Amino acid sequence: MPTYAYFCTSCENKFDRFLSIDNREVPLSEACEKCGCSTISRDYTSFSQPISTDMNMTPDKKTGGQWSELMTKIKKGTSKRYHKTLDAASNRRGTKWH
Fold first, then answer.
1. What distance in Å separates the CA atoms of residue 98 and residue 84, rounded to the nearest whole number?
2. What are the distances in angstroms from CA 55 to CA 12, 68, 88, 96?
3. Exposure of 16 by Cβ count < 10 A (0-12 exposed, 13-18 middle, 19+ buried)?
4. Model pLDDT for residues 36-68, shown as the tens digit of each residue
5. Which segments within the chain are labelled E, that is strand?
6. SS3 17
7. Of 45, 8, 1, 40, residue with least CA distance to 23
8. For residues 3 and 18, is the Cβ–Cβ distance under 8 A?
């Protein structure tokens, strides 16, 4: 669900709420956490911080290095013609685009 920014018109306290897109224009029924006032408005001037994502996730990073150990063991029992493909699998990142 998207995050929407709101503020209290009385004390100008700013806060975020997770709401479905269908409910984004529905006025909040809750009171301000800071002053208790019920005049809450949507804040269209601020943007919420996005959730950070590790775009450099590699198999080794995810498994704490065990992926490379596994690939080394597999390479010992396979033909050399497959080694390049196994090495490429170890260097992939957590995205669709390489």
1. 16
2. 36, 20, 18, 11
3. middle
4. 998 888 887 655 555 555 556 677 777 787 877
5. 3-8, 14-18, 40-42
6. strand
7. 1
8. yes
pLDDT at residue number 98 = 45
Q: Please check the confidence at residue 3 and state whether its pLDDT lies above 80.
A: yes
- Find the radius of gyration of the CA atoms of the chain: 25
Structure tokens at 40: 């809450």
Determine the distance from the C-alpha atom of residue 7 to the mean position of all C-alpha atoms in its chain, rounded to a whole number: 25
Q: What angle do CA 87, 92, 94 make, to 5 degrees?
A: 155
Q: Side-chain half-sphere of 26: how many Cα atoms within 13 Å?
A: 10
